Queue: 3 jobs
Job 1
Amino acid sequence: MSVFSASMNHRSFLWQISAVCFVLGMVLAASAFTVTQFARNGVRSNNPALSYGSGTQVAAEKAQQSEGEINKLRERNTELENKLGKGTDAASTLNKELQETKVIAGLTEVSGPGVQITLNDNAKESLTQNEPVNLGNYIHDIDIANVVNELKVSGAEAIAVNGQRISAQTAIRCVGSVVHINFVPAAPPYIIQAIGSTDALYGGMNLPQGVLDEIRKVNPSMVRIDKKSKLVLPAYSGSTLMHFAQPPKSALPEKRSIQESEKDAQK
Amino acid sequence: MKSWMPVISLFSGFAVGFAAFTAFKWQIPADYAPYLSVAALAGLDTVFGGVKAGIEGRFQNDIFASGFILNTLLAASLAWLGDRIGVNLALVAVIVLGSRVFLNLSLIRRYYLNKHALAKSVQQEESIQTPLSASVLAQKPETGGGI
């Protein structure tokens, strides 16, 4: 007694359905595999509607790679300058001055004693919908800029915020809700490292009515200052191209080709 | 159990396919992933339709095979066309195919439940010898009767 009795002659349909089921299983596997891949790696697509998120990710990765390359090239540059400077007394003096200037400009990694200031958003902040947002609960670009400024006043010789060296070209500003330093987004906690006289920097940060007072009034735990015996600050990796600013003609060097300089170095 | 064969081959196909994709690191471009999903759904619909037709004794292999290939291609190309002209035709395919899958599943379920009920009644009334299977097949379930 079977409901299949009418289809007994066509029992082979099970075989055929099984064969098709096998193919269907593979199609389903392909689909499932692709979807899990996307979930794991993010969607990489030519379709802009699908790929805004991954596009920025790719661009950020590229930017990071380029920054690493810039740093490497600048290190190589220093090496070559040192080699060139070995030739004559004049060249070595010039090179010495050049390297000192590069330290001032923030183009080389520097290390030394200093302080580390950690600024964080208020952890106690309550996010109920009825209360108005208290802007004092957040660290703003202006807070960081003020701290950097005060550090300079206190004699800091090199400053970095979240691994971004403060150079003459550095801007600290808000883009939307994110603080950008050297056009690189930074997130709290903001770690400001400064090399200089540890006591002078520490004192400068703790001046009455100083830059950190307002933040400490909201919640003292938003600010932490540590004295450090050794800090290592990275080199500035942003652009140093000048398109408009020109030194006076008297300050311009004579134009020489690279070959000539190399010949000089070999002498 | 012969009737479990399709299920077994579905799972083994899935396993083989997944293993192959993992082993050979095949990649399907993100743009085509939605079309593949719709195609898979169309294939699912065809298979359930085939099972239903087989139970009803109306299974025809040429219709089944051509239906499987053409339905998958049609569903995928319909979804593709929808993306080109800015109408979400993939959604249309999903709704139509999905409802058909549910309908076919409900019919298959009814046949199996009827089979069970029959087997029980046969046990109880062994003395009566009537061609029950014929009577069951005569009273086909109504399609609208609650999916």
Job 2
Amino acid sequence: MADPLLSVEDLKIHFFTFRGVAKAVDGVSFDVQRGEALGLVGESGSGKSVSGMAVLKLVQPPGKVVNGDIRYNGKSLLALSEKEMQEVRGSKISMIFQNPRTCLNPVMSLGDQIDRVYQRHTGCRASEAQKRRLEILSRVGIGDPVRFSNNYPHQVSGGMCQRAMIVMAMVCEPELMIADEPTTGLDVTIQRQIMELMAEMRKKMNQTQILITHDLGVVAETCHRIVVMYASRVMEIAPTRDLFKNPLHPYTSGLLNSIPRVDIAEQPVPLPGYVPNAFKRPTGCPFHPRCSKADDRCLAEQPELKTVSAGRMVACHFLET
Amino acid sequence: MVKQGAQAADHNGLVKEVLLDVRDLTVHFVVRRRLTGGNVIVHAADKVNLHLYRGETLGLVGESGSGKTTIGRGVLRLIEPTSGEVYLAGQSLNKLRGRAMRNLRRKMQMVFQDPSDALNPRFTCRQTLVDALRYAGCPAGERLRKAVELLESVGLEVSDLDKYPHQFSGGQQQRIAIARAMAFKPELLILDEPTASLDVSVKTQVTQLLRELQDRYNLSYILISHDLSNVKYMTDRVAVMYLGQIVEVGNTCDIFANPMHPYTRVLIDSVPVPDPDAVREHTILIGEIPSATAPPKGCRFHTRCPSRKEMCDREEPHLVRIDENRMVACHIGES
């Protein structure tokens, strides 16, 4: 396989709080290939968002990257200074967040906020940034770019705010886009519009994307490969089709069986138990308290993420040969 | 329309009792524009007719701003409807005031989206439940025993009694909120996005709990949700809302198998499906739900409808009965 665009190696991010150390990410490794859309799937507290933030070095104290490396085009991002990192953010790697409204500046018009990003990275004149903004806005299907630009975040809907965020993230044509729950909280109809927009960006600009979400339907329709996370660790990595047709990890199959679906008549079977607390992760395999197959070994020994077939990796004692 | 207190027979010949009957419920909010002068009326719900049989679950679906929650709150009179009538088991709620309304409201409880907001953070689980039981008229000596019973009925343990809400996970908090609602021995539960804030693997647990409780106590549910997968799993009938009006009602299996209103079809097609091989039609709905202050003339959906006709922007379609259970408000299907 060609050199990956981004590779995360044995990443550990711990939050040092008064209540103790929360291991938000505990030994996570995955690669992102050029031009692909990678889905990072997991429930809340699985460490998927923190992993995404770490790529842009946005983890704030009390959180700290305590181990591992993140390589972008072969170079370590963690070794960069804050000043060097600022050149990367927005121009090479961008991120869009859930809740676009809270991420936008409420006292600045949407247009000005977009222009600011472009001017910061290109150093061009205001008129040039404006031209660029109008061009991109009409490219993403906004009917009246001038009117849209004059709006303030509170004057437009959540879907429109998300679009402004996306435009802001893509105005410099970054190679890599990290989207953290970009459609959560939006209506299904608007979600569909945003999904189409992101797919188009990937095709037209040959963008690489990491999609962080808990929605298995969204990743099934948009991603090439999927990383399943649970309790700060990677459980399974597989091409999308393989993952849905033949999930190997008990957590993945349990999760797939537990969601109600519009497309099939079968009844969902709930997974028993709850997601473990970040301060008190279970010993051994983090999934063992909820796993029907778990035995003594799962309780004592943490399974390693191992390649089981081409492109497929699983962390489960039962799949080791 | 179903007659008040009437009984309808289903295809198995079983007699179904109408528990809740909502007639022409209209809720308008007046928004005062102090600076620019003049008032604006938000048409949150316009002449909504609904009925709910005892023991069934009715889903209310639609985009945000379609008026689903308004209907739920209007039924409980948590917001005062502008006009229209609501009957619970044949009794009109409109004239009730004060104590009489409070007494009747015990039969109708609501479960909210975010349990961490719905529970008092300074009350232990015991206090929350005992408090509810006191209002439910349970004698003082029996409250604790009842509280334990309630707790166990929602799958929690006695050892959880003295914990505060923050010590529970979201799914457990929602269980406590459900237990609290059950303290009143309600006949009707209005579930406003009960699983929207929960984790994927926990959602189905809570949904299943609600179904068990329904079977055990013959409860009737109104499920307000934009999660169509969950609606399909949980409900017997569905009402699809758009801009304050019902555009389609029918049995859940019929609606999902054969949506008749273009809006229903788009909603169902838009749900992402966890099957990479699924071949599906994606009609992308252009634009967003228009403002409820000035709903479009004619059919309210005509501005976004993929299959609109010429007459749609002039004439307002009315709900037309297609068969025994199905009603649709659309000009396309009319011949």
Job 3
Amino acid sequence: MSENALDWPADVHKTLRDEGITQVCQVPDAGHKRLIELCQADNDVSMTTMTTEEEGIYMLAGSWLGGCKGVMLLQSSGVGNIINALAMPNTCRIPLLMIITMRGEYGEFNSWQVPMGQGAPASLEAMGVRLHRVDAAEDIAPAVKAAARLAFDGQQMVAVLLSQKVLGFKDFRELAK
Amino acid sequence: MNQLHRRDLVSGLLGERDDNLLVVAGLGSSCWDVSNAGDRPENFYVWGAMGGATMIGFGVAKAQPEKRVLVITGDGDMLMGMGSFASIANDPVTNLAVLVLDNSAYGETGGQPTHTTGATDLAGIAKASGIATTATITKESELDELKELTLQAPGPVVVVAKIIHEPLKFDLPSNNGPYLKDRFRVALMGDAIA
């Protein structure tokens, strides 16, 4: 645990390193901002930004073919983009680890985020992804560790869902003032 | 414009390959071409995942920097994954080449025209996305250049070969994903990895 017990991105970064992850694929999200910065600053981690989330699913399948472990960081809206891509890790039994920041649920102000956010868990499960949902900051790093073990040792597709209860929710009315 | 024969082109390219070359074949005819040139564990056949072959090859290339990685895929697959060019160009690897076999048709679904029949230039899109080396090959006299670019030149490389849309016998490799994955990984890293 880090000095600041609630600095969960630092704990997640350390967990990812401890689990041997060296490739990070991401489409930026505000909820992942600090974790992305920590990974970018780490010379032993390679960070690749995707134009769309399915690129990351395919890239990580290639990483595994080449003997490298990776993680995909995305937002729940990106889940909609990866559905067909999940067929590859599913049918080839390729491990996949994802950390997904949720929108469209607890306290969401933007209705456009609601359909995919609400639909993300069922969509992922329909494609065979195992879910670890987290509602408290102190549970995030342990969930990432468990998900990494289930993914890479258990050869599964696994997603850690970070609830808006942890991440907080935006209020654009405040920003518009 | 489209004069080249895909089978001759691919077998010419892969006929004298060494153990250092890893090949990712995109869905459809590209898989049959690569299989026809000689099946081996260092080939990974993508039987679906349309739009994904180039990123799969990119992932392999980053994980295996000592190897040469060649993605061989079609224009339909590449049109569906054009953002890959930008993602790769901004995190460049020197050991990756992409060969697009461009027959300007969706070959597996009835030969409907793709956008490369008309206004769209895939090599131009790759270049404008920031891919360092790009080329379009249209004639047999350019095949030596194609070989040099795809197998030797510092990557990332994207070469578009204008091929004839022609009916050919399917040369089907295994479509067993876990088998294709495991034999590829074992060829690279040994039995302990399986």
